[in-house]
Amino acid sequence: MLVSVLSLLLTTVCLMVTPVSKAYQYSSSFINQVTTYPNIVTAKSRCLPGRSGGSGAPPPTLLVCDPYELLSPDQLMSLNRQLMEMKSRINSDRGKCDRSYPRPTVAVAFVDRLRFGVVEDQSDENIINYAAIFTYYLFGSWRLPTMCESESDKIVVFYSKADGVLYVYAGENLREKLPRDVIQRTAVEAKAAFGSGVYEGIKYLLTRFQEILTSNRSGMFGTR
C-alpha cells in the first residue's frame, strides 16, 4: 500500500519524504508497543486518559488516541470536537465519492516515548524510522469512518513526546493533492506551538490542516 509521508523531527526541524524501511531490525519492546497500541475504532475506551478515574463513556466517534495520558480529558475531547468539525466541514459540500476530490478523516495518536532496544538506536534517523513504522501500522489497522470508505480519505497524525517527533501518513490519493510548500511551512510553525505544550502544538497543527483541507478545495483538488 502506497502512502504519502510527512515527517517532522521537532528537535531538529527535519522535513522529508521517506520510505518505510523493511530491513531494519526492531526491538521486541517496540514491536510489542506497536501491536498492543489501542485500536481507535474497536477499543476506543483504552484511548481515553483518566479512564481509571471515570472520565465517562467515549463519544460515538473518537479520533484522538492518548493511552499514555499526555492530555487531560478536557483537552482530548476538545481536539476530538475539532477533528469532528473538520470532518463535517470537509464533507458538507459534496454528497458522493469522487477520487479527484478527496475528503480525508484525520485521527491523532499519542505516545509518551518510542520503545528503543538500546540507546544507540536513538539517532534522528532511527527516531524517524521508528515513527514511520508505528504510524504505518496504525494507518493500516485503523478503519476510520470516511465518506468513501477508502484509504485515500484517511490521515493519521502520530506524536511521541519524549522523542519530539511528529509523523503524518496520508492516503496515496492525497500525495499529489496537498500543497507541499504549505504543509512544510505549517510543520515548521508548529514547532513553536509545541513549545507551549502538547495540546497547543497539536491544536495548532489541526487548525492549519483544517484551513488547508477546507479552503480553495476546487483549486487544490480539481473541478467540483
From TrEMBL:
The keyword Signal is assigned to this record: yes
Key words, A-Z: Signal
Entries under Gene3D superfamilies matching the protein: 3.10.310.50
Signal peptide: 1-23
CC terms in the record's Gene Ontology section: acetylcholine-gated channel complex
Name of the protein described by the UniProt record: Expressed conserved protein
